[in-house]
Amino acid sequence: MTEKLVTVKNRAGIHARPAALIVQTAGKFKSKIFFKSEDEEINAKSIMGIITLGASYNSSIQITAEGEDEEDAVEALAQLFEKRFEEE
Amino acid sequence: MKSFTVLDLLNLDMQEQNELDLRCLGGRPGLARSITVPDLNRPGLALSGFFDNFGYERIQVFGRGETAYLNKLADQQEFENIERFFSVEVPCVVFTHGLQPTKEFFAEAERTQCPVLQTGLSSSEFAARVIRALTNIFAPTRTLHGVLVEVFGIGILLLGDSGVGKSETALELVERGHRLVADDAVEISCVAGDILIGSGANKVLGHHMEIRGLGIINVTHLFGVGAIRDQKKVQLVIELELWEPEKTYDRIGADERYQEILGVQVPYLEIPVKAGRNIPIIIETAAMNERLKQMGYYSAREFNQSVLKWLETENARARYFQDRDPMSYDDLTSR
Q1: What is the DSSP string of B5-66?
Q2: Contact A4/A78 with Cβ under 8 angstroms?
Q3: How many other C-beta atoms are found inside a 10 Å radius of the C-beta of residue B212?
Q4: CATH of B6-137, one of 3.20.20.140, 3.40.1390.20, 3.30.230.10, 1.10.1740.10
Q5: pLDDT of B125-140, one tens digit each?
Q6: How far is B162 from chain A (nearest CA, A)?
Q7: Between chains, do A49 and B185 touch, taking CB under 8 Å as contact?
Q8: Under DSSP, is residue B154 helix (H, G, I), strand (E, B) or coil?
Q9: Per-domain residue ranges for chain B?
Q10: A42 touches chain B (CB under 8 A)
Q11: Nearest to residue B84, comparing CAs of B76, B97, B73, B95?
Q12: Percentage of chain B with pLDDT > 90?
């Protein structure tokens, strides 16, 4: 299992568009990928789940992945957060 | 669970028989204090100076007795116990019967930033209502990835990997007149010991669904309020999975299988998905079958019973005719 803690760096937080980006990226990997914030854990391949997290600016999310390509998956998702989902 | 603050308690939107009728008199900065146990304390003993086993982490309820005692302390100008009372961090104090705290008590509460609330209810009624509300809030809760629908009155939780078709199945069920409770993130809480109540994990998002190729749709607007429900008891868990040819699936259904959620055993079915299988109809049938079971009629078992009975009579007949040799069974029937 690979884990990484990331921070939401874009001002608007995770709304529909970043959520779609996350789901598309997560969907490319075979691993089971989960996002954890506070007490909630949701499947990173489900767009409604990610929006439901209500991750706003500066909140942190723990990405966990389990499977054959877990390291690449976590890295690719962390990159998205790092690049602020190509937003401000 | 997220921490439940005194402000959340004030904001609880309970109706009629559950209304808490709370207002804040003072100590507002302390509204951010969190309530950690779903319990109350009557601080009579503490006020009289006995602080052993003082339940400071509970909501402190001041009824007529405690308030009368506060007035007596004020008359005697004794405030040591009140200071000691506020030296530990109690979540909040509540005055019932619409009673007012004494001036000194109130000042001390303001100084230590402890919220002072007031309710018009009697102490016993307030205690019953607040415990009822807090028990639900503090109930063990889990968020699951799945879809919760109500089919023929049975709450069915659909589970399965991403892309197996949970949302599409739910959409078809809604189209067929059943109800959507929650899509994708289902929050399940265990109340009253063995009842699982499921609802959408996020009330703000309402009844939206994601359908591949369509995007996000609003079920309420598309299908009307009759197509949705806010919460529903989880009575059946159905796991959808892609058909694996090597795997053996239940062909009889006489054995009950269960899935454990928050310590509660829920009937569980595994339904394989492949092209040409109409999953919504299978789910409707499963729901009706579940209702039959709740009425005490188990299709698979009753069927097996009648097969056994039939075999037994056949056996008895064959033996009867065998005994009456030389006339064989075949001769008799061919006549």
Answers
A1: EHHHHHH----GGG---EEEEE-GGGGGPEE-SS-EE-THHHHTT--TT--TTSEEEE-HHH
A2: yes
A3: 10
A4: 3.40.1390.20
A5: 999 999 988 888 888 8
A6: 7
A7: yes
A8: strand
A9: 6-137, 141-294
A10: yes
A11: B73
A12: 56
Q: Using CA atoms, how far apart are residues A43 and A50, in angstroms rounded to an integer?
A: 8
Q: Which of B129, B179, B184, B229 is catalytic?
A: B184
Instruction: Report the alpha-carbon distance of residue A64 to residue A30 in Å, rounded.
Output: 13
Nearest chain B residue to A41 by CA distance is B143
- Architecture of the domain defined by B141-294: 3-Layer(aba) Sandwich (3.40)
DSSP code, position B327:
S
Q: Is the ipTM of this complex over 0.90?
A: no
Identify the three-state secondary structure at position B234: coil
Beta-bridged to residue B269, according to DSSP, are: B238
> Cβ–Cβ of A39/B205 closer than 8 Å?
no
Distance from CA of A57 to the nearest CA of B (A): 18
Residue B330 is predicted with a pLDDT of: 61
β-pairing, B59-62 vs B93-95, is: parallel
